[in-house]
Amino acid sequence: MATCLVVANSLFRPPKPILPHKHHPLQPISSHSLPKSPLNSTFLKPHFSHSDSCRFRLIAPASLGETDASSDEPLPLVGEDSAAFDLGTQNIVSWVYFTIILGVVLFVLDVIWIDNSTGFGKAFIDAVSTLSDSHEIVMLALILIFATVHSGLASFRDMGEKILGKRAYRVLFAGVSLPLAVSTVVYFINHRGSSC
């Protein structure tokens, strides 16, 4: 079982006490106007969630003077828990499918893009290299092309998934982004020590 981390700003800054009568905002508060009871001790205790996976919780009062009244209830998980991995729920068949699909994708990437005799990667790099004799300018252009395509496709994700379906759009997204990323990284590695 992993150890859970609790982040609580209430441990560092106790809430302001509620004053018995209102003061003018600029008038100093005297010590006799503060409440005599100590701060709520349960407010300063860390709240741990006992679950199988480690979760981060931020415990903070919604406004000054409020405490976490429902501290016994675990906070709901918002979004995908993509980093969760449970060996007991894994299926050998799904891993075989994953390995086969990954192998096919890498083979197609090699044939269509990476291999100089059959792929378009060299032609793409040569076309971008005609912009300037400076390797820095070509590298900047490759980064801008990759960033524009990658971010552009990501911004059209909702619309693309409605038109093509989730899996088909993700295949299209990876099929376009991955070759551009490979070309950018390979160009950088090949020209990291040279300057014009």
UniProtKB/TrEMBL annotation:
Q: Transmembrane ranges?
A: 95-114, 137-156, 168-189
Which branch of life, at top level?
A: Eukaryota
Q: How does it sit in the membrane?
A: Multi-pass membrane protein
Keyword field contains Transmembrane helix: yes
BP GO terms, sorted: carotene biosynthetic process
Q: Where is the NnrU domain?
A: 138-194
InterPro entries named among the record's database cross-references: NnrU_dom (IPR009915)
Q: Does the keyword ATP-binding apply?
A: no
A GO CC term attached to the entry: chloroplast
| Pfam families membership | NnrU
Listed GO molecular functions?
9,15,9'-tri-cis-zeta-carotene isomerase activity
Alphabetical UniProt keywords: Membrane, Transmembrane, Transmembrane helix
Where does this polypeptide localize? Membrane
What is the protein name given in its UniProt record? NnrU domain-containing protein
Instruction: State the organism named in the record.
Output: Gossypium raimondii
